[in-house]
Amino acid sequence: MRLVDLLSKKRDGGILTREEIHFIVKGCTDNTIPDYQLSAWLMAVYFQGMNTEEVSNLTMEMAHSGETVDLSSIQGIKVDKHSTGGVGDTTTLVLGPLVAACGIPVAKMSGRGLGHTGGTLDKLEAIPGFHIELSTQQFIDNVNHNQLAVIGQSKDLAPADKKLYALRDVTATVGSIPLIASSIMSKKIAAGADAIVLDVKTGTGAFMKTEAEAEALAQAMVNIGSQLGRQTIALISDMSQPLGYAIGNALEVREAIETLQGRGPADLTELSLTLGAHMLVLGGGSDHYEAAYKKLQAVIENGEALAKMKQFVDSQGGSTEVIDNPALLPQAKYQIAVVSRCEGYVESIHSEEIGIAAMLLGAGRATQQSTIDLSAGIQLIKKTGDYVMADEPLAIMHTNNQNLDAIHEKIISAFAISNRKPQPTRLIYKTIHH
Ligand code: URA
Ligand code: CA
User: Is 199 exposed, middle or buried (0-12, 13-18, 19+ CB in 10 A)?
Assistant: First the structure.
């Protein structure tokens, strides 16, 4: 096989066979295909697309291009959850204990934050003592014992995806549905998922800016799951404002604790219960969605979800005292209000701008090498639909920085204030099953 023939085939709209896709992914992994040919192939896929079978084959080949995680020694169906990335999205911290408290195993590999989006590993590290480095055996033992463990994604997972993603980044080929869908699903499959619940965000803080794009990506991933025998459900959820009120690592841990205590923000609670109910159904913990949803509400009310959070934190070396007393979480030196300059209804809150402002306060990373300040972030006071008076606070900046003028302006401009009451926001636009 010669790559140049596969390039002309795809360029002209042909369908690549499993063997041909194997050849490309193998050549990518072992560096026998030069980057310029891989780049040309990515561009051909960008323009010609791929059918479901091709995307599924690409997913499987990338999933098996490196280490795969064998979770077979964990009893039960392993359901993974993936979010395409938002601002202030604290759902994993809530969902993990919630679903585990209902007896469904959650073996989660998570990532770190970059740019305007946060990462679960960073948030967990805001808990004093918490560590995310467990051996594979410890990880599996913890899940068998507590139904819940969270570790960092292994560096050797889906190396072909890592290389292709880096090439896409510099060849203007990131925004291709087949390439995004196979990239995400390959990592879920390599991480050992039997079933997958996807939260595809849409709006100003999301990777997919429009509902139509989000739906196309969701449908592509559900199709892959179905082809590959992994039951997959995708939600399209709103990211036209940040989720909850807290953006920043320690602040979000606190918000997750409050949500597990039943006094969290309405949107974060609703999204966590919805994603969790789908996880419970796919994991065999409930026959149908409504029953699963009620079961999750019950473990919040009876304190089992919070107790599970403590057990989980303890099992990974974290201080459980912070669960009872979140004031023990890292606190920033300065808390400075951002006040509105005019009166009116909050029409929208530009998530990406808020995410960038939180990053500039120290909560996030501009590059992979940046260090973060776990105590920093933004606490929203107003959300979409709220009325604000002139000189009333919109948000509080938590920071150890002193040079705040530009960040302050950024937060003010992220809030669109209008004299007409906006339409109520919808949290979940759609649910996509096969
Ligand atoms: N996230 C991924 O993991 N891959 C993509 O291609 C895009 C977003
Ligand atoms: Ca939040």
Answer: buried
Closest CA to 116 of 196, 204, 176: 204
Distance CA 289, CA 142 (A): 27
Lowest mean per-residue pLDDT among 50-59, 114-123, 178-187, 215-224: 114-123
Question: How far does residue 7's CA lie from ligand 2's centre (Å)?
Answer: 44
Among the listed residues 64, 78, 81, 82, the single catalytic one is 82
Contact 107, 140 (CB under 8 A): yes
**Choice among 183, 240, 286, 340 that is catalytic:** 183
Average pLDDT over residues 387-397: 98
Query: How many angstroms separate the CA atoms of 333 and 289, rounded?
Result: 44
Please give the mean pLDDT across all residues of the chain.
96
Binding site membership of 183 for ligand 1 (Cβ less than 6 Å):
yes
Q: Which own/partner pairs from 408-412 qualify as long-range (CB within 8 Å, at least 24 positions apart)?
A: 408/336, 408/338, 410/353, 410/356, 410/357, 410/360, 411/338, 411/353, 411/354, 411/357, 411/378, 412/338, 412/340, 412/341
Residue 34 to residues 12, 49, 164, Cα–Cα distance (Å): 21, 22, 12
**Does the annotation count 168 as an active-site position?**
yes
The residues near 162 (Cβ < 8 Å, ≥ 6 apart) are none
What pLDDT does 154 receive?
85
